[in-house]
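Allow me, if you will, to draw on your knowledge of protein folds for a short while. I have a record of one protein: its chain in single-letter code and its fold written as discrete structure tokens. I remain grateful for any guidance, and I place the record below:
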Amino acid sequence: MDGANLIGITSKRQFLSATDLIVERHAEVETPAIGLKRTSIEGTPAEEEELKNAYANLRRQLSARRIERQAGRAVAHWHEDQQAAEVLRKDGKFESFGYSKQGKLYLEYYEALFLLELNRLQLEYCEMIVSVEQAYVLLLGEAASEKFNNYLVYSTLSRAGYIVVKHQANTTTSTSTAAVVTSEHCIWALLDEALGHKPVPAHIKASSLYKATKERWSEVKQQIMSHQTTTLEDDNSLDFKFETRKRKAQSQPQEQSKRICRDKPTKSLVNHLKAEPSFKKFQEIFEKLDIIQLQLTDDDSEMNKELRHFKISFDLHLHNEGFRRSAPKSPTFSVVILPTDEPFPTHDELLQCWRQQLSHAVPLLVISVSESKQIQAFLYYIS
């Protein structure tokens, strides 16, 4: 390219004014509403027209000017071996993003891609700046995997206002967990072993209370089976005293009192409570809920089947609860993401997944992602 052409190109370059910068920075392109699913044969003129409009709308979104402040973005470098992005320069608040390792801040692949889409992160790889399109292939991979579903759920919940963090599996040693094990934990573990044929966890067996609780359990069980009680050592030692004085006669006959009681309207305590305004309001709200009771597996053939294992992917926190990564509280929900075309878990499988939370048992939010990338979420409360 000669000098004349270079001067001509430079002279044609235009700079935006302050007003144009403000307008272009907050420009939004509306996407057309999605209509009903088409059932006609492919290749029809109506389908070609719809695809043409969709491509034009997509081209309009991509060609829109994006004015952002480059200094307002953090800088991170993607490590392929660690599958994490090392933050080289922070900008803004990173309270709910990333994890620390050897004094450095790292971002998970879904966190880095989410911040990249929000234009809060500049991702670099091999000393090159990665675009959003390249980041999808680099961070999620070209082959089909669960990473895309995890990111789709993470992005949707984060945009909805939740604080989404990676679920911390309880992998503490027996010495550290034995200190928080109480007698109630030992009793429930023994009940699960006796009634549900489930083994006692190792951290409960290592507790000093487990042996004493098991011995007391055997004593109580033997007393119940032999119909012996330890509360009454000697029945003869009890001194029953009965009142020997005569009672006064009633002022009016018994038949008249019965007649008076019949004349009065009888209204129980339950009926009184049902007449309260709070009960009526609760009844109106309760009728709107879609409650489905899960059935237990009574059939022996169903009980003998191997239960599927569902892992907990994320923990959800609310913004108004004062979330702190250094000292996190119990999450509001625990998220379980089902693979595509995977049937919903049964009662026993949900109970098994719920018991993975040894430190805090919170409701499970089971999310299913369809082939069309639509999300369906169901909340399960287990008591």
